[in-house]
Design brief:
Layout lengths: L8 H12 L2 E2 L5 H10 L8 E6 L8 E5 L2 E5 L11
Antiparallel strand pairs: 1-2, 2-3, 3-4
Length: 84
């Protein structure tokens, strides 16, 4: 997954959904697997992630489900600037 600053916030959310949905944790980029292990302590690398967009008044942009446990996540889009 490569950062693309030319897409909208909604497109960014769909990139997350498409990347995570129906994928085993062991198949993720290390930054994403760290993120998942932080959100879901105790999950195993063979567990499958289900990820959906959230509509309506629910707080959060993504609904991530692993082992029947659900977490809602807000995705922000921005550019990291390094000042030297």
């Amino acid at each position: 997954m490569v950062f693309n600053k030319k897409i909208t916030g909604f497109q960014n959310e769909w990139e997350f959904i498409n990347y995570l949905n129906k994928r085993k944790i062991k198949e993720l980029h290390p930054l994403f697997s760290d993120f998942i292990y932080t959100l879901f302590p105790g999950v195993k690398e063979e567990d499958i992630i289900y990820c959906y967009g959230v509509l309506g008044k629910q707080k959060g942009d993504l609904r991530i489900i692993i082992q029947k446990k659900t977490k809602y996540v807000s995705v922000k889009k921005g550019v990291k600037i390094l000042y030297i």
